[in-house]
Amino acid sequence: MGRSLTAIEEVYKDLEQGAAKIGLQINASKTKRMTQIRNKQNIYNPPNLTINMFEETEKFKYLGTVMTSNNNELIEV
Fold this sequence. Notes:
Elements: H1 5-21, E1 32-33, E2 55-56, E3 59-62, E4 65-68
Parallel strand pairs: 1-2
Antiparallel strand pairs: 3-4
């Protein structure tokens, strides 16, 4: 999680390094990403960012709650 693409890149690199220390590897084919933003037309993802290798998703279930890219709570009702 992060408020900028640079912050997200740094968190990902820290996660990747921490996982490697205990013998784990991030599986890019099973990892997805979601951007929560009010106006998706204003987002720009430069092609060389590591996070771009992950598939984009619009919603996912986390601890029984559906999270959506537009914070739509009606999906839960």
